Each structure stands twice: as structure tokens, then as C-alpha cells.
Amino acid sequence: MARPLRIDYPGAWHHVTCRGNEKKKIFSDDHDRIRFLEILAKSVELYEIEVHAYVLMNNHFHLLLTTPQANLRSLMQRFNTAYTVYYNRRHRRVGHLYQGRYKAILVDTDPYLLELSRYLHLNPVRIPKYSQLDVEEKREIIRRYCWSSYPGYVRMKHRQSFVNYEKILEMVGKGDDRKGRKRYEQFVIGGILKDMNITFWQEVKGQAILGSDEFVDRIYERFLSKRKVDERELPGLKELKTGPETMEEIAQQVALEFGVPAGDLYRKRAACRVARSIFMELCRVYLIRKMSHVQIGLKLGGVSVAALTQNIKRLSSRLEDDSDLRRRFHKLVAVWG
Question: Which among 36, 76, 236, 312 could bridge 207 via Cys, Cβ 3.0 to 4.6 Å?
């Protein structure tokens, strides 16, 4: 199983999520939720980690954290194990509670943190059964939803000692006072008015970093450029490696290898389907440090993110069955080392 790319350093911000195994519930009732938060509070105190936002859903949870001691892995190992042991003992079950390893995305502070906190706090009204409710109805649901940090952001009486509210509130311009809490509430409700169309996840680079190109470059050069690992186990690192600078550079090499016009590679219904498939995948792998999947798809003739994902699957199958195509693909990869 491929291991997720892990990046941590003192003061790093992380969005962490875990989902139930086979999409099953990880909370059976409020007693489980209370115990979950108790274990979380003890764990973050032990590892001196700051929780800035959280939300508990039926089959998953989200956390927005900072790691002053660069010890996210230690926290999650202790925390997930403790809750799994509790849950299995209480409900007389065995086996894994979560679906694989936890997912952690390193987050650039500007402009993503504020949007990310809103995304977490709107999760309770993003489920299908609430899709037809109006803004005021959704507003009341998230205000009353007690399994998230949002109530503490807008009402002092709901504050929890293990949550740091100040840093997010400072980002709305007023700080942790009555005006600041009101402005944050307006900001979150504004997400409902925007129809909660979340797009920033499509900007995640290397399956592990959400931030500007400059932020991604700094992280790569500081933590990953000299990292000696098996890239088959860390596909995220492969997406961040250095390589061609432009789409045109990739097109020239693919066109030369397959004997097709470079311009045809950009067209959806081009005759050179195999060459275009390889071109799409090389663009996705090498340009993700510079462009989001959405931007790459637009330059490829209006290809959706879903289509890029489907292309990976189809191409992988072709490469397994066709040794000559596999040789040509690796020849192209070797051009950039």
C-alpha cells in the first residue's frame, strides 16, 4: 500500500482527517463523541499541539492543527490508537476502526487557513439531507451543532480549553472580541451564500501540500529535494520532483517520441490518443508544483479533474499490457531524470 507523504516542522499547520473503515461510523452515540474529545484534549496537551478547529461527523473527523514540536506523527499514533482501543472495547468489536492511515495536508497560512476553517465548520450542513434548506436554517444547524469548534468561535459560553480560537479570529481582522466573533460568524455564513462550492482541494500539490507555488517550492527544497525514498511508496513525492518547466517542453518530447504534431496533443479528439494520454499524465506529474489540476486540465483542452484521474487508470492498464509502450514512457521520464 502506498504510504502518504508526511511533512512536518516546528510551527507547521496541518489539516488532518480520518474516515471509518469501509465508510462505516466511527461514532455510535454521543458518549463516543465525548470520549473522543477527551482523548483528543489529553493527547494534544501531552504533545504540546494546538487545535484551532475541528468537526466530528458520523464516519469521519477533521482537525486543523499546528505542531510547535514537529510531532504530528507521534500525536496521531497515540490518539488514533487510544480511541480505537476504547471504541472496540466498548462496542465489543475487533479490527481496524479507520480506513487506512490518517491523511494530513500541510497548509500555507495565507490565504488557505481561513477558508479551511470555514470548510470544517460548514461540514454539518454539507450533507445531502440538508441541501434544500435555506441559509437561515443551515445557519441554525451549525450554531446548534455541538460536535464542532464553531459554537466556541461565536459564543464564549461554548469555549473549550483545548481549542485555540485566537489565531483564526485574528485573520478576520478584529481578533478575539465581540466584533471579531461576529465577523467570523458572517464569514462562515457567507460560505453558505457561496453555495459552499469548495475548490481549494483541487490545488493540493503532491497529495500533501496546500499553498502557493512559492510555498510548495520552499517546502520541496527544504524537506524533500534530497530525500532518499522509494517513490513507488511515496507517489506524492514523485509529483513534487523537479522536471520540465513548461507544458510546451513536455509536448515537444512526446511529439518527438511518437512522431506526431505537438499541437495535436492539446486537442481532446486528436487521432494520437495514446501519445496524448502519456502527455496528459506527464503534465499532471511534472507540472503540479506550478499549476493546479484544474489549470492543467484547461490547458489540455478543457479536461476535468475527474478525466485526469481516469486517464491515470487507463494509462496504467496500458503500460502493464504493452511492454513497448512502457519502454517509451520510461524513456520520456528519463529525459528529466
Answer: 236
Reported pTM = 0.71
Handedness of CA 40, 46, 47, 52 (dihedral sign): positive
Backbone phi, psi, residue 107, to 5°: -120, 130
Note the pLDDT tens digit of each residue in 31-63.
999 999 999 999 999 999 999 999 999 999 999
* CA neighbor of 328 nearest in space, from 282, 289, 261: 282
DSSP β-bridge partners for residue 200: none
**Chain region(s) in the chain for CATH 1.10.1750.10:** 243-337
User: How many angstroms separate the Cα of 74 from the Cα of each of 6, 48, 61, 227, 310?
Assistant: 12, 11, 18, 21, 35
Single-letter amino acid, residue 72 = L
Strand order in the sheet with 12-19: 50-56, 60-67, 12-19, 103-107, 209-210
Burial (0-12, 13-18, 19+ Cβ within 10 Å), 283: buried
Written out in words, the top-level CATH class of the domain with range 12-193 is: alpha beta
Q: Which fold has domain 243-337?
A: Chromosomal Replication Initiator Protein Dnaa; Chain: A; (1.10.1750)
- Between 5-14, 125-134, 220-229, the lowest mean confidence (pLDDT) is in 220-229
The C-alpha atoms of residue 289 and residue 277 are separated, in whole angstroms, by: 20
Residue 4 is classified by DSSP as P
C-alpha cell at 17: 482527517
Cα(318)–Cα(312) distance, rounded to whole angstroms?
10
Span(s) in the chain for CATH 3.30.70.1290: 12-193
Contact 91, 27 (CB under 8 A): no
Q: Is 184 helix (H, G, I), strand (E, B) or coil?
A: helix
- Number of other CB atoms surrounding residue 94 within 10 Å: 6
**Which residue type, as a one-letter code, is found at position 319?**
L
Q: Which of the 8 DSSP states describes residue 224?
A: I
